[in-house]
Every structure is written in structure tokens, then in C-alpha cells.
Structure to design on (112 residues):
């Protein structure tokens, strides 16, 4: 996997919440890989894959968040080692109740 890491400035449009969820990345015609979702927001996620993948920045993928049974279309924004940053192409504005509760709990714990 090769790509430039994110810029030194943070260009995120929504704050990320630390997470530790299992997931799966699907890339049409390329395969599917189990992943660990390290943080997530309404606009994207940072994931870690253990296996080498042919994925590169700019690739469109689907991310399944196992805990919430949510499948989200995303674009790979950067890859650094086994981690990659994903930008959701459809924001998490209409999320399953369990995911909505997760974001509410996290906001109340960190004071935001």
C-alpha cells in the first residue's frame, strides 16, 4: 500500500471518536478485508487492516461496521502502513439507533 499520509493540518469536517470496532472493507473487483475501526465520525473513519491490500488513495470502498450492521460507501483519502483514512461519501446523518446512541454517549463523556 502506498500513498501520502494526511497533511500536517487537520482537514476533518467532523470530530472523530475513538473506537475499537470490527469491520470489513469491500472493494469491487479487488477483494474484501477484515479491519479494525480505530476512530469514526459522521464524515469518515480511520481503519487498520492486517493483510496487505492492493488498495490506494482515491479507491472507493464499502466499509461495514460490524457492531452497528452499517454499510457505508467511502473513499480512501490516505494510507500509511496498515492504516487508512476513509471519507464517507454518504455522511452518518441517518444512522441506526445503536450508532446514534454511541455518538451520544461519547459526546457526553468528553464534554462536547
Amino acid at each position: 500500500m502506498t500513498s501520502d499520509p494526511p497533511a500536517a493540518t487537520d482537514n476533518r469536517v467532523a470530530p472523530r471518536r475513538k473506537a475499537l470496532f470490527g469491520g470489513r472493507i469491500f472493494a469491487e473487483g479487488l477483494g474484501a478485508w477484515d479491519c479494525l475501526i480505530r476512530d469514526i465520525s459522521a464524515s469518515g473513519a480511520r481503519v487498520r487492516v492486517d493483510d496487505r491490500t492492493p488498495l490506494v488513495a482515491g479507491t472507493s470502498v464499502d466499509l461495514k461496521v460490524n457492531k452497528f450492521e452499517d454499510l457505508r460507501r467511502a473513499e480512501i483519502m490516505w494510507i500509511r502502513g496498515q492504516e487508512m483514512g476513509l471519507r464517507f461519501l454518504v455522511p452518518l446523518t441517518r444512522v441506526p439507533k445503536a450508532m446514534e446512541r454511541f455518538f451520544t454517549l461519547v459526546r457526553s463523556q468528553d464534554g462536547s
Observations:
- The CA atoms of residues 68 and 99 lie 6 Å apart.
- Residues 1-10, 105-110 have pLDDT under 50 and may be disordered.
- The chain is about 10% helix and 45% strand.
